[in-house]
Specification:
34% helix; 20% strand; 3-stranded antiparallel sheet; binds adenosine monophosphate; alpha/beta; globular
């Protein structure tokens, strides 16, 4: 990509783990008019999976992914086999923003994310990189990494895309049975009710959400400051309701803005 950069082309980048759906495609569509050359990467990054997580079973569809990228006008589809040499010994770690939420329930996860994205940025050398608000904490963490390390990349956030029934699109939805998917809709229903409630008390709104959630285990249900991701008692500034929950062995996340 460095010759393209030197020729004055603006490089756009959408990193993914593949099994592409309309959520990923919305990021490509967002990036397309913002750049001359659009790169999408597909790499199931072992560093961001815990030992008991779904690295080995993560869904894959190389032919469908290539077709999706072609339909979105992607110029380069980057599908590395392995991104780390045996002697790789560098970890990029953002603190504080990663203490709570998914950082608390998935130790080491965000170090894996920031390390792979930093490495991908080094390889692709993008001017802009687009990430989804579906992974709201990840977006905040990556913005901070770019700011703190003065990386010459503009991070753009794209809105969370839902299926017609309201379930946040995710490659992991493929794991859900029909019954589990019905219960999975309770995440969106809970967040919607929390957003619609009139009370400025976080406790009141959390109680409303908890009542609606129909899952096997709640990892977290929190109302946080939209920037710092610190839990709020009163909703007196831009806030986000964030949820992670397990249905069977599948972990789902979702979030919504509280205005
Ligand atoms: P993943 O393949 O899950 O690592 O996701 C790659 C990128 O797509 C990340 O920036 C995600 O936040 C984004 N993404 C995944 N699902 C959605 C969705 N439903 N809406 C918007 N962006 C999404």
């Amino acid at each position: 990509m460095s010759t393209r950069r030197e020729a004055g082309e603006r490089i756009g980048f959408v990193p993914t783990m593949g099994f592409l759906h309309a959520g990923h495609r919305s990021l490509m569509a967002l990036a397309r008019p913002l750049c001359d050359h659009l790169v999408v990467s597909i790499y199931v990054n072992p560093l961001q999976f815990g030992p008991d997580e779904d690295l080995d079973t993560y869904p894959r569809d190389p032919a469908g992914d290539a077709a999706a990228c072609a339909a979105e006008g992607v110029d380069t589809l980057f599908t590395p086999e392995d991104l780390y040499g045996d002697d790789h010994c560098t970890t990029v770690s953002v603190t504080e923003l990663t203490d709570g939420l998914c950082g608390a329930s998935r130790p080491g996860h965000f170090d894996g994310v920031t390390t792979v994205v930093a490495r991908l940025f080094g390889l692709v050398q993008p001017h802009i990189a687009v990430f989804g608000e579906k992974d709201y904490q990840q977006l905040a963490v990556l913005r901070r990494m770019v700011r703190d390390l003065a990386m010459a990349v503009e991070v753009v956030g794209g809105p969370l895309i839902r299926d017609t029934d309201g379930l946040a699109l995710s490659s992991r939805n493929a794991y859900l049975s029909i019954e589990q998917r019905q219960r999975g809709l309770s995440l969106h229903r809970a967040l919607g009710a929390m957003a619609a409630a009139a009370s400025s008390s976080a406790a009141d709104r959390l109680a409303i959400g908890r009542e609606i959630l129909d899952v096997d285990e709640v990892d977290y249900l929190e109302i946080v400051d939209a920037i710092s991701l610190q839990p709020l008692v009163r909703i007196d500034r831009p806030a986000r309701a964030m949820v992670a929950a397990r249905i069977g062995t599948t972990r789902l996340i979702d979030n919504i803005a509280l205005d």
